[in-house]
Write a structure and sequence with these properties.
The structure is a single chain. Helices cover 50% and strands 10% of the residues. By secondary structure, the protein is of the alpha+beta class. The protein has four domains: 2-203, Glutaredoxin (3-Layer(aba) Sandwich), CATH 3.40.30.10; 216-358 and 446-629, Glycosyltransferase, CATH 1.50.10.10; 365-439, no CATH class; 633-706, no CATH class. Helix 20 (509-526) runs antiparallel to helix 21. One of its GO terms (biological process) is carbohydrate metabolic process. Residues 43-196 form the Spermatogenesis-associated protein 20-like TRX domain. This is Thioredoxin domain-containing protein.
């Protein structure tokens, strides 16, 4: 208690310091920069990097350095504070702060005189980002980007914040540089306490093993979460809304297994509201990162690969579950967007599209009424009602975001027009406005090919293939996976990101975990053993590189940062630890590997308290816990028509099931003794015990129902929602 109080007092002290005014410093001189360029007045060490974000700052007058041992050694030699700034290329407020402060000569002089300044692309170094985001959340209870931190030469933080305007930023750096000269011991004491707090966060992220009880555990978690559900607009109540596919995937699985109508209704309300809102790009397809309001209307306009990849999977699963045509359309338009706007020149998929165009957020996507009238002519009146182009819906400065306020069927009925006619109009409008939009300056792209994000996209392609049986989607999955093997995998070692000329060697748990999961999904869809062998290889490498004595896995291989990171909660990506538990579960069932099954079960049991208290933040773990509290099935299809039957079987939504097959005899434990008389059979198994084989999908669904797959009825083979 004493140390906590002292920590809070120090927080108050340094917060106070950061708010005072500062006096101007002397002007910067061009000679202060070590590196010069013939084409720019200033050039710093970031010019040698390949990250688009770092290159954006390569001609700031600030003497930026990349994150490196060299930079920290220099700080120690000079006994200088480090100014760490973390962001990413499509971050709107990162651009604003650069323009206001980092391109300003006076501010740059202050930074160069008093700090070793380091720039980090959070997408290249998520480990660095997560450590200092944790510190920021301890101090301010929220995080964000740009993250700006002042560190001691040993990397321990003494100040953390996000965006600051120029005058505030000058005040902060002036006061902290002065404080370090006058009271270094006090700063070191504060840094020690804050670093200890970071370490406590991660040491406490893994709970003790708890015994599995029954479905009441999951029901309790859902009950607590449901108090936050927005009954009007879907999602959770709040001033901003993120789609968060991990928790919606969990809710879909839960609703099917539990027959919880309230959960199903909330899920569908959320999925439908997202499609109607401005967070959905109605013209170009795909989804923006989040909405800045509670109605999914006003987006933050950047488009991230990881969001769209996960949302693709989400709507593909939702279509399998509910057979709603609008979910199929969402799947198709998202795929079209990704292929058109995010595919790299060499293959692989880039990381992001900027929110800004020429410094104006959303300029590429929004419309003025006059422009719409000119483009659409006589159609404007109907269009304006369909997409809410009314004065009360105006965003700002006469600009409109395309938003629907009713589903197509409701709109058709209200305006005496058939749905087919409305669809024709909609496609016509889309063609006209997309053509007009393409004449605008397009947002900049971050063309890094990030391993984990591309692996998640491959899973999206596979889910689209399962939902539609279209081989083109499986072909995309195969080719993207091969691209990653060719470019992001050298000497049997993955790297986190690829860009031509990049020297990055860092790799993280998420890369191996997601690649192993993706390889397993490819194996399940193709029956090709090479994918299974790669899944095992990636999984084994993860076990070797990242295993921790806690039974979980560390974020990075080297513990060179100020705290060891064992992250269990979902973030913008599903928890990599949960993905590892998922992979161990599947491999355990495939190979009858009891050690893997025990490890997975132990990890899940350690998360029970977190799942009950905050399942919305642990959606991937929630889905895993469903495998322990509801029946889990091994569905094995063997024989000459196994692939055809497997493809059709995958069009059904069957949670809590591993579906694998083989057209030829296979020595894997799950297949031994299954091949009979050159016929095709389906085996429904639980815990290595199978029902008598059947030859039709209808018979298999009946067996699933008899074994307690609560999502199925014997009469219809469909969820009774």
């Amino acid at each position: 208690m004493k140390s906590t109080s002292r920590f809070l007092m120090l927080v108050c002290l340094f917060s106070f310091l950061s708010c005072k005014n500062s006096r101007p410093e002397k002007e910067i001189k061009k000679e202060d920069n070590e590196l010069l360029s013939n084409d720019f007045e200033y050039t710093n060490e970031l010019i040698a990097e390949t990250s688009p974000y770092l290159l954006q700052h390569a001609h700031n007058p600030v003497n930026w350095k990349p994150w490196s041992d060299k930079a920290f050694t220099l700080a120690k030699e000079k006994n200088s504070l480090i100014l760490l700034s973390i962001g990413y290329s499509t971050c709107h407020w990162c651009h604003v702060m650069e323009e206001e402060s980092f391109e300003d000569i006076e501010v740059a002089q202050m930074m160069n005189d008093n700090f070793i300044s380091i720039k980090v692309d959070r997408e290249e170094r998520p480990d660095v980002d997560i450590v200092y985001q944790t510190a920021l959340e301890l101090v301010q209870e929220s995080g964000g980007w740009p993250l700006n931190a002042i560190l001691l030469p040993n990397g321990k933080p003494v100040y953390l914040g996000t965006y600051h305007d120029k005058e505030t930023w000058k005040s902060i750096i002036s006061k902290f540089s002065l404080e370090y000269k006058n009271n270094p011991e006090k700063m070191e004491e504060y840094a020690k306490l804050l670093t200890s707090g970071i370490q406590d966060v991660y040491s406490g992220s893994v709970g003790s093993n708890e015994a599995f009880t029954d479905t009441n555990t999951i029901h309790e978690g859902i009950s607590k979460w449901s108090k936050q559900w927005d009954s009007d607009w879907g999602g959770d109540v709040g001033g901003q809304k993120f789609i968060n596919p991990s928790k919606l995937n969990f809710l879909l699985n839960y609703a099917f297994l539990s027959k919880d109508m309230k959960a199903k209704d909330h899920l569908r309300k959320t999925l439908d509201a997202i499609l109607l809102g401005g967070i959905h790009d109605h013209l170009g397809g795909g989804f923006f990162r989040y909405s800045t309001d509670g109605q999914w209307k006003i987006p933050h306009f950047e488009k991230m690969l990881y969001d769209n990849a996960q949302i693709l999977s989400l709507y593909a699963k939702a279509y399998r579950a509910f057979k709603d045509p609008k979910y199929l359309k969402a799947l198709e338009t998202t795929l079209n967007f990704i292929e058109r706007d995010m595919k790299g020149d060499q293959g692989g998929y880039i990381s992001a599209l900027d929110a800004d165009t020429n410094g104006v957020e959303g300029a590429f996507y929004v419309w003025e009424e006059e422009e719409l009238r000119f483009q659409l002519g006589d159609d404007f009146d109907l269009f304006s009602r369909f997409y809410s182009i009314q004065k009360e819906e105006e965003w700002e400065n006469g600009k409109y975001i395309l938003v629907k306020r009713s589903a197509d069927k409701e709109f058709s009925n209200a305006h005496s027009i058939s749905e087919s006619e409305l669809m024709e109009y909609s496609e016509k409008w889309k063609e006209i406005l997309l053509k007009a939009r393409q004449t605008r300056v397009e947002p900049k792209k971050d063309d890094k090919i990030i391993t984990s994000w591309n692996a998640i996209l491959i899973d999206g392609f596979i889910e689209a293939y399962k939902a539609t049986s279209k081989e083109t989607y499986l072909t995309k999955a195969r080719s993207t996976f091969q691209f990653l093997l060719n470019h992001n995998y050298k000497n049997e070692q993955l790297v986190h990101s690829y860009k031509e000329g990049s020297k990055q060697k860092e790799v993280f748990l998420e890369d191996y975990a997601f690649m192993a999961k993706t390889a397993l999904n490819l194996y399940e869809s193709t029956f090709e053993l090479d994918y299974l062998e790669l899944a095992k290889k990636f999984n084994n490498t993860a076990l070797e590189k990242f295993s921790d004595e806690s039974g979980f896995f560390s974020f990075n291989e080297k513990n060179e940062l100020i705290a060891k990171i064992i992250s269990t909660a979902d973030g913008v990506l599903p928890s990599a630890n949960a993905i590892m538990a998922h992979n161990l579960l599947k491999l355990g069932h495939l190979d009858y590997n009891q050690q893997f099954l025990n490890s997975s079960r132990k990890m899940i049991s350690s998360m029970i308290t977190s799942i009950v208290e905050e399942v919305q933040n642990y959606g991937q773990w929630g889905s895993l816990m469903l495998t322990e509290t509801y029946p889990y099935f091994e569905i094995v299809v063997v024989g000459p028509n196994a692939r055809k039957i497997s493809v059709e079987l995958n069009t059904y939504f069957i949670p809590n099931a591993l579906i694998v097959g083989s057209e030829v005899p296979n020595e894997s434990p799950l297949f031994q003794g299954r091949f009979l008389n050159n016929e095709t059979y389906i085996y429904i198994c639980q815990n290595r015990t199978c029902k008598l084989p059947v030859q039709t999908i209808e018979e298999a669904l009946v067996q699933l129902s008899e074994l307690g797959s609560y999502g199925w009825t014997q009469k219809r083979g469909l969820l009774p929602f």
